[in-house]
Amino acid sequence: NCGREPFPNAGNNAITLEDVERDIAALRGSLDGGLGDTSYLGAGEFVSVMSFPCMTNSSLRGVNFVDGGPEDRKRFPRLEKIRFANLVAVGYINIGRMVSLISISAPLLQRALSFIVIRENGLLPKIDLPSLSETTGFGDVEISSNENLKKISLPSLTKTGGSFFVQGNPNLRKLCASKLENVGSVCIGNQIDQPFLDADLSELETGVFFSFPACYQDSNASTVCGTDNGFGLFKCSTSGSSSSGCPSNAC
């Protein structure tokens, strides 16, 4: 029903996996709504696709889809795809620990008022947010600890209010953020942490290096292609220098 914003009972709070479970249970007629009602538990067990076509501008709301800790019950153990076909703005996105997730689609998303975190999704092969241009406030972009992740494409991203953190993705091959100019801080996992990486950060000039051992600590980054004007956080050289990841084919 696109006559209203989905999950109105959540108000301006984040939409959670529990909200979705309850919604499924309500549609099935199995939710009695009484105090302490737990009849919604297990409602997402066989769900493989979540689609939210009615969500368009959710600037005041977050999406918090973290499926428990390592030993917790998984609410959506078979969930493979999450789709936000018409979402343009969001408060924040936090997607993590989804054991079967292979696709996140948000082709129109331009802005997050806070952060975007995609973490610990073991099967996820790529992240493509083609329209995302900024996170505001102190908003981070964090993509970390996704074991099967091979490609990150953020071709329109120009700034993050907080950190730009891409680390702990051991099979990452390509990171395209070729328009990114300004960050609060930056962590790109180094050649030991992300050994196959080809990263294009060729416009990044403003920010500081994130103080974490697995991140590059200075501009000598063998897997990152930086600016060619001498003012970038990362160096650019096409001379074959071991301290440069240029030229890049990430984009």
How would you describe what is shown here?
- The protein has 251 residues and is mainly β.
- 5% of the residues lie in helices and 29% in strands.
- It has one helix at residues 17-28; strands at residues 15-16, 49-51, 57-66, 81-83, 89-96, 103-105, 111-112, 116-119, 126-128, 134-135, 141-144, 151-153, 159-160, 163-167, 174-176, 182-188, 198-200, 206-209, 224-225.
- Strands 1, 3, 5, 7, 8, 10, 11, 13, 14, 16 and 18 form an 11-stranded parallel beta sheet that branches. A 5-stranded parallel beta sheet has the order 9-12-15-17-19, with no helix packed on it. A 3-stranded parallel beta sheet has the order 2-4-6, with no helix packed on it.
- The longest helix is centred in the N-terminal third of the chain and has 12 residues, at 17-28.
- It starts with 14 loop residues before the first strand and ends in a 26-residue tail after the last strand.
- Mean pLDDT is 87; it is low at 238-242.
